[in-house]
């Protein structure tokens, strides 16, 4: 008797395909085994050959998750700030004459409007001066506009 044992492996094919967020790699591995080759010698020569073939398929899934996160953040910030400031300042004193004050107003940089109102009222009673009242009124109006744009990636 002669016994021969043969085994060999064949990697049949490999293919890949890609779905959304998932990459599948499929390996199909085929094992082919020649189990026996048996030669029997008797009075009359008889040749018997047993060939058994096993085909085993292994499917391996390799999952690859690739995520690309691109965020573009665009923000436009527009703010208009309007403030009116009114202040009245009253001071008392002693003076001889009566005067009426002036009004001044102007424009300052960066969109700020400042109005400055001064009013002087000085008065007396029957030829004699008793009180002096000074009234100062501040009127300030702030107009500020902020435009900010954020771009974040």
UniProtKB/TrEMBL annotation:
Protein name (Swiss-Prot/TrEMBL): Uncharacterized protein
């Amino acid at each position: 008797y002669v016994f021969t044992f043969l085994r060999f492996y064949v990697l049949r094919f490999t293919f890949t395909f890609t779905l959304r967020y998932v990459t599948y790699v499929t390996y199909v591995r085929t094992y082919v085994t020649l189990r026996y080759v048996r030669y029997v010698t008797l009075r009359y020569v008889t040749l018997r050959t047993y060939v058994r073939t096993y085909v085993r398929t292994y499917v391996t899934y390799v999952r690859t998750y690739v995520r690309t996160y691109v965020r573009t953040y665009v923000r436009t910030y527009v703010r208009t700030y309007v403030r009116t400031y009114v202040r009245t300042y009253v001071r008392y004193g002693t003076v001889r004459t009566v005067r009426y004050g002036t009004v001044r107003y102007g424009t300052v940089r960066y969109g700020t409007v400042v109005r400055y109102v001064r009013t002087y009222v000085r008065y007396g009673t029957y030829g004699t001066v008793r009180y002096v009242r000074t009234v100062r009124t501040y009127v300030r109006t702030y107009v500020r506009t902020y435009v900010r744009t954020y771009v974040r990636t």
